[in-house]
Write a structure and sequence with these properties.
The protein is an alpha+beta fold. Helices cover 17% and strands 39% of the residues. The protein has helices spanning 10-14, 27-30, 41-48, and strands at residues 3-9, 21-22, 33-34, 55-61, 68-73, 79-84, 87-88, 92-97. The strands form three sheets. The protein has a three-stranded antiparallel sheet with strand order 1-4-8.
Amino acid sequence: MATIYHITTKSWWSKFENLDYYESPTFNEETFIHLSTSEQVSGVLERYYAGQTDLLKLHVDTENLSAELKYEQATNNEFFPHLYGRLNKSAVFEVEKI
């Protein structure tokens, strides 16, 4: 099993509580969901979530994803996983408070 991660807020995650899928706040605008490898999580937290509380880290099994996953180059030349579709909750095997 390969694991990737998605950072979100408890309040945003709760909007999808009764659904079998999740969409990030920028999904409709960007058409994909930003994810990270284990090595990228700390940098993402520092760059985009500094000072924020009430965060969750979704642990996602890549083998159970129903949408297409692509590793694409970001502005810092790192390759990040991007999910082109909704995140099916059946692929999320842990929701960790951070």
